């Protein structure tokens, strides 16, 4: 009956994992072939730790390509892996260059107006946006491994930096300190990004799930859009806060201080005592109709061009060229009507010249250092997530690899260098990268071309932006962020996975109503709780045999699967951990009770054996082992046998080490449910049991 | 070839889950029986939510016994489930009572000295310890469902309360406020425990894993033992802190203030300027040799009796009676030598009489409320964990059920009532429950007997404790907590699961060196990170066929398992979540690359198909679905087919909803690896491929 064979592989010959076969002949009747369950090859604790560390930190096996190479080749490969430019630089030719010039100029026409706009979103001087479109792309071209990433400031990171810093420091009252903090945050963002890459902790950004990001981006886009109402409606005094409620009250309730002051004066003179409540009734809004008209015109133009390009990707250049064209036209208009009206506010003087060094502005001590570090880490994570996601998207379209950890180092060094050359946080922008890809970019040279165009602008063209109206910058931002509200993705989440949709909503409303970092934290917390909940309350299901086969499947799903009299076959669909060991033990006992009630009702064969299919139990800890042991003890008191089927390698090893296998007895462990049923049935028959 | 059959069950007949069988006949050669993969029965989102909520909050199906009952029976069952005393009270007889009296008196002889000692551990007046051994056991006898739990103050909760409260409020300088905070904390502990039970959140205490508790208890026991050095060595001035370092420095460096002052005076007079460093050289320790001698004598007696009882459980009464006997003897000794020496400090006057009401001392506002709530929650969790664990242990020995959530409510109400009657936090004590069990307790009446003995003590015997020396209380605590250091359990953790051992050490050193709440938080954090790490970096393994069978098993474990030419069979051992979707995708592509390198090396058959065994993939989310989709797209670019095998119910449903199954094509989904291999091979043969 197979009991004579030692069914657990002997530990003394650990690598000789042959599945010893025992043929069970019970009373000369049935012949059942029984396979033993192997222990995995023996490893020391150190080997296991090494494998585990390699799995966690080096899943891509980065040193593999260096094996079996000469030293010279290794140096070349090392240089190539540090500076990807060496990989493609050697066979770069004129044809590739032609494509890159076209795409580089196209993204430059987007990057210049967007740079100026996004800097304003971060409450920084517009010129900083252009500086940030010059140095970082050059550095990325040398270090980065994506061929299509268009590097520069992006809306989300700009928004978050602006909102977090201006909560503590006013960009208008304390502009120098604000600028210092912005550069310092950028430095810490870079440092954090580079360290994540160096320490190979890149997997941490995986915890920002797709669902979290969809909600977060949409929430941030709504806030940015609302903020643009300031520029779009020509309001002068506006809240510095980022939440929905203060912004909306800014739009509808704020008047200029002058008029407020005036009202108080008037009331005071009338009644000889100030009536502060009186100006609650006043509804004079401080909107400028000229600005609104201009804004609406250009907004409809930009949205139309965006719509056209989305419909026909070949016409990408329409939406790519539209922002620069709008800037030029609107600047001309304002220039022409400058003597007639002053209602439309414009940028004004911008300094000419290249990035000034800013390393002396980094701020490593003092009261605001904690704020700078916090802002740096959050903008760092967000810009990294965007950069990596965009890089991976286009790499997958063209079927090449973007290495996450290396990309993090590239983005990190780019930001650290940027913080010393008057740049703020930059990363790969989704919209510009898409344009870059569609315009036929072939290598990172398109970033160099773009940087050169920005260089020319910085050196010679800055005075041309004097009359550029602020409203056009608001319109450019609006058009860019409206595309970030991905309601279709949210709808798909709702359809496929309600819990993911819930995470998405948490992150959306958290960002909109609470704050950017807290909203993100809530969404990550909810996603982690989902994982923990799945582990805490795992699924168990009863299996039955599909007649005529050796297949055992869930009775709930497969109608023709049928119970085997005398057996209760349960599958546990989760690792058995401290968090679920008590639950699983109780749940299995409940299955047993329910099965016995059913048996009484239908007068079926008495239950004799519980088979636990452990195929999906991918890990077990000491609490889990204790639960299995306790379960066996309690079932034994009810004269029921417990049998384990197909524990995976690590589980098998721990069962062995904790002596549970010995306590289960020889017939307590099988490789498949079918073999367990066959062997146990034949044993019972041989013993004359029904 | 089975392609003609619709292999995914039609959604329109969701409950008709018959595994449609298709017989594949490829070129008249092979006959392969193919089973289709079923979708689980269709359920609305609400039904799913309901099932999920029931799984999480009502895993024990508490209303099951009320079904199919008359209203009268339901009322009786309801009363019985609220007050378990009604369940066993009706058939209680003299024989049971006799057992309960014996065990009740035995635990009373332990409870009285321990009550006084533990109250001192919590920096409370000794009498509060006796009060706490009177009211709570009576309440538990009515509400509790364990038959063997001996209720009263316990060492860990007393220690934690003492350490947390005395960090902010001095028990000697502000005794009334301290007492108020102790009762308030007890109230919040009870409230928290009862709410956990009422809201059925009992599973939260499962997050304190066995490993965490072993480390925590040992750390707390070390601290308590060190604290007892004060009593044992007769030191007068001692630190109020609980960490290792301040306690050790208290033992070896502190002298009485008088001598310090004296030394400074001396130095000052000598040199005319204070030399503060000078008294670092002085080693006059403030130990009292009489106390040390007495302590050592009784310590060795108590440890010996404990050792005897552990060796022979029948002699449990020796260790049970020893503490009371020691108290009596030592009190007599001190009484007799009271005129000769005052070196041995004793308890002094204790008030006579029953528990005074203390509801007027509860403190629901003011500066220390947050501290009281925090202390309440932490002592609440700890005492709950101990109570439930002890209850379950003895219930499992006698094979009856202790309902976690109901037990939480019982302990919670007991503490809330206690806080109004001058009691501090109580729960089921492990040592006293073990004695209770060994002394033959049959029902909770033993608690009533114990409470009556405490009542008699409170009313008549209090003056007898006047000369009880403090050193004997220290010895009793020491003996009790030394048993809590379970080094064997720690060694077993080390042997079976290194990570659990690490958790255990985190909790041990966290409690010892940092603080009780932080140490616990660190250990829980580490345990949760372990779960997340397992999900973030799941195991994947390559499977092969065991010749002559339809069994596919890990190539690493089963030596005779062999690869099937043209196939790469991979098993994923984890749910596919946002946290691991990128990793899994990359890891599977790496498996493919490595397999292709191997094939090149050995000139084997070209790889044509990747089979993903999804049996252990117990869940999938939208990021996971996207990863599968993307994986399929990338494999297709390399002309490789992706086939999924045996996805479980929920995974199958989501694959269906997200249209991935359609995109996989008809031959992209199989029930077993064997069927997939057979069907695909025959298809290739029919198409004339090698």
TrEMBL record, chains A, B:
Region: Disordered; residue ranges are 1-22
Q: Which CDD domains match?
A: STAS_SulP_like_sulfate_transporter
Q: How does it sit in the membrane?
A: Multi-pass membrane protein
Q: Which UniProt keywords apply?
A: Membrane, Sulfate transport, Symport, Transmembrane, Transmembrane helix, Transport
The primary location reported for this protein is: membrane
Q: Pfam families recorded for this chain? A: STAS, Sulfate_transp
Stretches with biased composition (Basic and acidic residues): 1-10
Q: Domain of life here? A: Eukaryota
- Cited InterPro entries: S04_transporter_CS (IPR018045), SLC26A/SulP_dom (IPR011547), SLC26A/SulP_fam (IPR001902), STAS_dom (IPR002645), STAS_dom_sf (IPR036513)
Cellular localisation? Membrane
Task: Give the residue spans that cross the bilayer.
Answer: 75-92, 124-142, 149-165, 177-199, 211-229, 284-303, 315-337, 361-384, 444-465, 471-489, 501-529
Q: Which PROSITE patterns does the entry mention?
A: SLC26A, STAS
> Which residues fall in a coiled-coil region?
none
Q: Does the keyword Transport apply?
A: yes
Q: Which SUPFAM superfamilies does the UniProt record give?
A: SpoIIaa-like
Q: Which PANTHER family match?
A: SULFATE TRANSPORTER
Q: What is this protein called?
A: Probable sulfate transporter 3.4 isoform X1
């Amino acid at each position: 009956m197979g009991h004579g064979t030692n069914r657990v592989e002997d530990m003394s010959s650990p690598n000789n994992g042959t599945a010893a076969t025992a043929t069970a002949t019970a009373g000369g009747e049935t012949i059942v072939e029984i396979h033993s369950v192997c222990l995995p090859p023996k490893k020391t604790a150190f080997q296991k730790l090494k494998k585990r560390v390699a799995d966690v930190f080096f899943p891509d096996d980065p040193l593999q390509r260096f094996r079996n190479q000469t030293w010279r080749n290794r140096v070349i490969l090392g240089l190539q892996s540090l500076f990807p430019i060496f990989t493609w630089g050697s066979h770069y030719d004129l044809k590739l260059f032609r494509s890159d010039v076209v795409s580089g100029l196209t993204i430059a026409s987007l990057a210049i107006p967007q740079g100026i706009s996004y800097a304003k979103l971060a409450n920084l001087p517009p010129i900083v946006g252009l500086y940030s479109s010059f140095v970082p792309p050059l550095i990325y071209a040398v270090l980065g491994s994506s061929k299509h990433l268009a590097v520069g400031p992006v809306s989300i990171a700009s928004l978050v930096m602006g909102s977090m810093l201006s909560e503590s420091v006013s960009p208008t009252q304390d502009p120098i300190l604000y600028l210092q903090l912005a550069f310092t945050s950028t430095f810490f963002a870079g440092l954090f990004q580079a360290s994540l890459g160096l320490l190979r902790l890149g997997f941490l950004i995986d915890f920002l799930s797709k669902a979290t990001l969809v909600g977060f981006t949409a929430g941030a886009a709504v806030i940015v859009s609302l903020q643009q109402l300031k520029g779009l409606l020509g309001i002068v005094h506006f809240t510095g806060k980022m939440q929905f409620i203060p912004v909306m009250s800014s739009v509808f309730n704020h008047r200029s201080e002058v008029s407020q002051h005036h009202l108080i004066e008037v009331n005071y003179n009338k009644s000889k005592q100030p009536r502060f409540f009186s100006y609650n009734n006043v509804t004079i809004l401080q909107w400028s109709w000229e600005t609104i008209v201009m804004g609406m015109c250009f907004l409809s133009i930009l949205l139309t061009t965006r719509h056209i390009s989305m419909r026909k990707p070949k016409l990408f250049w329409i939406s790519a060229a539209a922002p620069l064209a709008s800037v030029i036209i609107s600047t001309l208009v304002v220039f022409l009507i400058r003597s007639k009206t002053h209602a439309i506010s414009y940028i004004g003087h911008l300094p000419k010249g290249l990035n000034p060094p800013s390393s002396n502005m980094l701020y490593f001590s003092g009261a605001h250092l904690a704020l700078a570090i916090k802002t740096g880490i959050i903008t760092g994570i967000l810009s990294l997530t965007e950069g990596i996601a965009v890089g991976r998207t286009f790499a997958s379209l063209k079927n090449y690899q973007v290495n996450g950890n290396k990309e993090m180092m590239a983005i990190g060094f780019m930001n650290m260098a940027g913080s010393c050359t008057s740049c703020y946080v930059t990363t790969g922008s989704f919209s510009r990268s898409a344009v870059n890809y569609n315009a036929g970019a072939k290598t990172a040279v398109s970033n160099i071309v773009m940087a050169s165009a920005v260089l020319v602008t910085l050196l010679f063209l800055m005075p041309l932006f004097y009359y550029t109206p602020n409203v056009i910058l608001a319109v450019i931002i609006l058009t860019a962020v409206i595309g970030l509200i991905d309601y279709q993705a949210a709808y798909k989440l709702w359809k496929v996975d309600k819990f993911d949709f819930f995470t998405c909503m948490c992150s959306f409303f958290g960002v909109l109503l609470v704050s950017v970092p807290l909203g993100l934290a809530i969404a990550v917390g909810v996603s982690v709780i989902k994982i923990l909940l799945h582990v805490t309350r795992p699924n168990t299901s009863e299996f039955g045999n599909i007649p005529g086969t050796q297949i055992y499947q869930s009775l709930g799903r497969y109608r023709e699967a049928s119970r085997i009299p005398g057996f209760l076959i349960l599958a546990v669909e989760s690792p058995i951990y401290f968090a679920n060991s008590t639950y699983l033990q109780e749940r299995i006992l409940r299955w047993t009770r329910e099965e016995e009630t059913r048996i009484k009702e239908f007068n079926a064969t008495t239950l004799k054996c519980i088979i636990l299919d452990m195929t999906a139990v991918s890990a077990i800890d000491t609490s889990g082992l204790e639960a299995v042991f306790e379960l066996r003890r309690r079932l034994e008191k009810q004269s029921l046998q417990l049998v384990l089927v197909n524990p995976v390698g690590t589980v098998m090893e721990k069962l062995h080490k904790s002596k549970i296998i010995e306590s289960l007895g020889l017939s307590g462990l099988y490789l498949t449910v079918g073999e367990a049923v066959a062997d146990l049935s034949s044993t019972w028959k041989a013993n004359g049991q029904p």
